[in-house]
Amino acid sequence: MKVKVHPTFIILLILCMLAGQVVRALLVFSLVIVHEACHILAARGYGIRCRSIELYPYGGTAVLDDSFEGKKKEETIIAFAGPAVNVVLFFFIQILRENGILSGAWALEFAKTNFWLAAFNLLPVLPLDGGRIVRGLLAGSFGFVPTTRFLAAAGKCLGGAFVFAGFLMQGMGFYIYEPILFIVLGIFFWIGSGKELDNARIVFLKQLCRKKERLLAQGLMPGRSLAVSRDTALKQIIDKFSADHFSLVSVMGKDDKIERMLSETEVIQGMMDFGLNCMVGKLKEE
């Protein structure tokens, strides 16, 4: 398993050190490793192998085996495992502090760092763990790609807010460490959110391709119907497909009568032949 360190994480550590926060930098680094280790342990509980870890300013990302892709329940639990350990460590150290077993600035710093790592990672935006948890919960109802698109857009908004706050703090005369930190985080969120959306489209197509294998293995799979007009773009239809159901598409005519029934395979083949923006009515003509 490879461990990759994102440049923004290195910048964060350097900024902490330049600000005289060496202990804090080492503490953040250590807790991020623990955070990611819990993601990996949760994944292994489902028999999913971790291929690599990439460390970011907010935490990190465990790159899991392809067998993980699109599994909503597993994604939710694996994503929650990281912040959960930070919450446990926070309460554990607080109990020790309140009972006089531990004291001093380092114990307080340990508790605060765990609290903020958990709280920050649970924000419901991508690429944070909170966004993955929400996607796992909502993808079944709203679709994997549309849910990812919404959460990625929220992540970009958060990134923009961080960048704006960084420049605002700079103008207000804050010490250079804080503004640069906010700007670096904002840029990362903007880039990371876009990457999540690009990956989601690839993952979703893989899910659709694997459904036939699952059907053959299980013998049956739930199905559902979609009614669309002839002018509906294939992209809109495919966004409604789910990894857990086979969809049958009814193309409706002007008199609200079914002109043609299309399987998922036919819709996807039409996308490959004519592109995502092709109207479903054109498939009838071919």
Structure description:
- This protein is 65% helix and 13% strand.
- The chain is of the alpha/beta class and 286 residues long.
- It has two domains: 2-212, no CATH class; 222-285, CBS-domain, CATH 3.10.580.
- GO terms for molecular function: metal ion binding; metallopeptidase activity.
Tell me the layout of helices and strands:
Elements: E1 2-5, H1 7-18, H2 22-45, E2 50-56, E3 59-64, H3 72-98, H4 105-121, H5 129-142, H6 144-171, H7 177-218, E4 223-229, H8 234-239, E5 246-252, E6 258-263, H9 264-274, H10 280-285
Parallel strand pairs: 1-2, 4-5
Antiparallel strand pairs: 2-3, 5-6
Helix pairs in contact: 1-2, 1-7, 2-3, 2-4, 3-4, 3-5, 5-6, 6-7
Q: How far apart are the first and last residues' alpha carbons, in Å?
A: 49 Å
Shape: elongated
Range of helix content: 55-70%
Number of helices: 10
The averaged pLDDT comes out at 80
Strand content: 5-15%
Gyration radius (Cα, Å) is 23 Å
Q: Which quaternary structure do these chains form?
A: single chain
Contiguous uncertain segments of 5+ residues: none
How many discrete structural domains? 2
Order of helices and strands: EHHEEHHHHHEHEEHH
Strand order of the largest sheet: 1-2-3
Overall strand count: 6
Query: Which class best fits the helix and strand makeup?
Result: alpha/beta
**Main sheet makeup:** 3 strands, mixed
